[in-house]
Design a protein that fits this description.
The protein is mainly beta. It is 4% helix and 46% strand. The protein has a 19-stranded mixed sheet that branches. Strands 6-7-1-10 form a 4-stranded mixed sheet, with no helix packed on it.
């Protein structure tokens, strides 16, 4: 007896076989709904907070719904100049929401792509050779392990150690002045500073303190020029005097580093430790937004690499900044994995970072410790994620176990294409996938045939909102992240 189908059933079968139209709801099921939302940046400057709707008219927006012969049915969306967007008629259930190269695994139909940013919008780096000369007196007698730190409020990422860009010009031991310390600002990447637009530059000296076999640095002096206008391509000279900062603050530099011994093989069996850091720093925008730009350092310790617990004793330091700038205490472990692309003769590394940031000051009884650990048991297409594979499909499943330490609120998977260029291994990040689950199926068109890839899986523990609905707003402190780097894998031609 022939099987007969109703017209609606035949229509559903045809659409599912086509793989190019919407997956229709089952009879009596929820009807498809538009996915809508906004992308508004709230800019924080010395003048306050200003909302800035982002023009989405050229953004790539889509919903990738599981189903169809290709594994997904793609529903394109549209964005408007006022920062709003819509993806029409998306079925209920989980799907990949795409915003440019960001993919979010979600079941929500109203999404928040808003974010906070710090600094004035028109800040820009120098594009031409731009000499910035420092003629500053009043330094504490210089030691070879001292640090000169540049920072400016009201501009994004105007932060760095001057010695990284002009090591040959560092003062000599015992010097108390910078005599014509000259940096080409175009080599630093720092934004050009203009106090007439509300910027607040500062040059600080972080003095070395010896603690047994270790050395740490504390902020001991500051020079804050009242007027500075840096112009692309022009020479500028800063004349002034470093003011000593009272060392009236204290913190215990205690860190439970023994956890690192167990974390290192979880990052990647081939991971090598690169550096460890413990710091006290302060963000001028407050602590409610989390990290949205570079902060200014008050204390820095770069201990010798190790997995034994660390206690450098009680560090005294100064804090010359506004009392509204709250302090954050941080620890960081950085590891490196080397990769060699097919056709390359020179390998290059990717780094994996474990970091914890807290408002609670460490003590001898309660030292700082990494709050969230790396994911474990990483697999790619069902095989060990630390063993190279070839011939992968374009939508493989990545899976992992939750960390043995901590409680992640979201997982981030960064996808890097690995290729050779002039004999050197290169990396290009092609996308990032965000999910609250411990597995994902790669969204369509992210991986391409015959290419090589590495995946960085990051566990994120923070007081963030529902990260499948509120995508880009950083949680406040405490926060912690831990990253894992996969082996290099390749897709089938």
């Amino acid at each position: 007896m022939p099987i007969r189908f109703s017209l609606p059933t035949l229509g559903r079968i045809a659409l599912s076989l086509c793989g190019c139209a919407l997956v229709l709801p089952a009879a009596g099921g929820p009807r498809p709904k538009d996915v809508t939302g906004t992308r508004i940046l709230t800019r924080i400057t010395t003048g306050g907070e200003t909302p800035e709707p982002q023009d989405l008219s050229t953004a790539t927006l889509a919903a990738h719904v599981p189903g169809g012969l290709a594994g997904y049915t793609t529903i394109p969306g549209t964005g408007a100049a006022d920062g709003t967007f819509v993806v029409p008629a998306v079925p209920s259930g989980s799907f990949w929401f795409q915003f440019n190269s960001i993919y979010v695994w979600t079941q929500h139909h109203k999404l928040d792509l808003d974010a906070f940013v710090y600094g004035r919008a028109n800040a820009a780096p120098a594009l031409n050779p731009t000499s910035q000369v420092f003629a500053v007196t009043g330094l504490a007698p210089w030691a070879a392990t001292d640090i000169l730190q540049w920072y400016s409020t009201n501009v994004t990422n105007a932060y760095g150690y001057l010695g990284d860009y002009g090591p040959a010009q560092e003062p000599l031991p015992g010097d108390t002045a910078l005599a014509g310390y000259n940096l080409d600002w175009s080599n630093t990447g720092f934004p050009l500073v203009d106090t007439a637009q509300g910027d607040g530059p500062s040059l600080t000296q972080l003095k070395s303190v010896v603690a047994g076999a270790e050395t740490y640095n504390t902020l001991s002096g500051i020079f804050q020029p009242a007027a500075l206008t840096q112009v692309d391509g022009l020479t500028n000279t800063l004349n002034g005097t470093m003011i000593a900062v009272p060392q009236n603050k204290k913190v215990r530099l205690a860190w439970t580093r023994s956890l690192s011994a167990g974390f290192q093989p979880q990052v990647n069996p081939a991971a090598l430790p690169i550096f460890q850091r413990m710091s006290v720093h302060t963000p001028p925008w407050g602590v409610k937004r989390g990290f949205i730009a570079a902060t200014v350092d008050l204390v820095n310790a770069y201990p010798a690499l190790g997995t034994t617990d660390l206690d450098l004793g009680e560090a005294r330091y100064g804090n010359p900044f506004d009392a509204s700038w709250k302090k954050v205490y941080s620890i960081t472990d950085v590891y490196r994995v080397n990769y060699l692309a097919p056709g390359a003769t020179t390998a290059r590394p990717l780094n994996a970072t474990l970091a914890t940031n807290a408002r609670q000051k460490p003590t001898q009884a309660a030292p700082m410790a990494q709050s969230v650990g790396p994911v474990t048991g990483l697999t790619i297409a069902g095989s060990d994620g630390f063993i190279p594979q070839a011939g992968l499909g374009l939508t493989p499943v990545l899976a992992w176990n939750a960390p043995g330490r901590g409680n992640p609120s979201v997982y981030s998977v960064a996808v890097y294409r690995v290729f050779a260029q002039s004999g050197i291994t290169r990396f290009a990040q092609v996308g990032t996938c965000l999910t609250r689950e411990t597995s994902l199926t790669m969204p369509p068109a992210l991986l391409q045939p015959g290419q090589n890839y590495v995946f960085r899986v990051r566990a994120v523990e923070t007081t963030i909102h529902d990260s499948s609905k509120v995508i880009f707003r950083n949680g406040t402190f405490p926060s912690s992240t831990a990253e894992v780097l996969s082996a290099m894998v390749s897709t089938a031609p």
